[in-house]
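Form 7-S
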Amino acid sequence: MNPLDVLKYGHRTVLKVVDGLPEADWHTPGVVGVWSTKDVIAHLASHEQVLVEILQSLLGEATTPTLDRFKLGTAEFNDPEVLRRQPMTVDEVRAELADAHAQTLVLLPQIPEDVRRRAGTLPWYGAEYDLEDYICYGCYGHKREHSAQIDSYRSRLGR
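Output:
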């Protein structure tokens, strides 16, 4: 697997599904539960920041506040992270996602392949999984899932 390509393809899928979405439609709830498209992108931005902090931690860099909140569990992470981004504009949320994604593309190649493929590297994710598994399932799969939900929402709107 080429995890760098996996990251790029996942991000490209998200960009493609929101391309051309009218501003007003970014704020309509119901894309995923009560979340709007903006909320879904805010959610993905928070998860992208988790990946940034995972990669930084594997490189020996210091603090991981977002990752620490993520490890508390879904209920303690998802909605609070979306709420934290409520005051942001659509452009700001998109920029946060883009910036975090760009950071992952710089950080990932710095991690040796044997570390990326070592089972148990992320013990909180599961002893049998490695970083590349997390990138595939936790990042790419997550983006594909929410992209499909946004696409379905757009279809319901006729856009």
